[in-house]
Amino acid sequence: QVQLVESGGGLVQAGGSLRLSCVASGIIFRFNAMGWYRQAPEKQRELVAFITSGGGTDYAVSVKGRFTISRDNAKNTVYLQMNSLKPEDTAVYYCNSLNVQSKTVGGSWGQGTQVTVSS
């Protein structure tokens, strides 16, 4: 059974930084592409960034140049370094495995971690 545990969220002022972590279990982590998603109040969940099993990355236009996704296969962990945060980055952030071509997520969602950016 896949389990995803996100952490690292919090309250930060605009322009600040946070580093999110997601530990995955129940999957062969190193073979999976992993993505970070976010859902703001009354909005649909959106894909923010993903990293392939080979380390290739891609980002939503809204975060490109500010966020960096990385992974540590030895720790079954994917990270999201978020810099120059803006109030519009406020959301609950989730991770999940995904199919890079179809963008289909691999399993159930974890509880997520709340990021709140004050202006």
Characterization of the model:
There is one protein chain. With 119 residues, this protein is mainly β. It has no helices and ten strands. It starts with a strand and ends with a strand. The mean pLDDT is 96.
* Average predicted confidence as pLDDT: 96
Spell out the helices and strands N to C: EEEEEEEEEE
Q: What share of the residues does DSSP label as strand, in percent? A: over 45%
Q: What is the count of DSSP helices, taking H or I runs of 4+ residues?
A: 0
What is the radius of gyration computed over CA atoms, rounded to a whole number of angstroms?
13 Å
Numbering strands along the chain, what is their spatial order in the largest sheet? 2-10-9-4-5-6
Overall number of strands: 10
Quaternary class: single chain
Measured between the Cα atoms of the first and last residue, the distance is 40 Å
Descriptive terms for the model:
119 residues, mainly beta, six-stranded mixed beta sheet, four-stranded antiparallel beta sheet, 10 strands, 0% helix, 50% strand
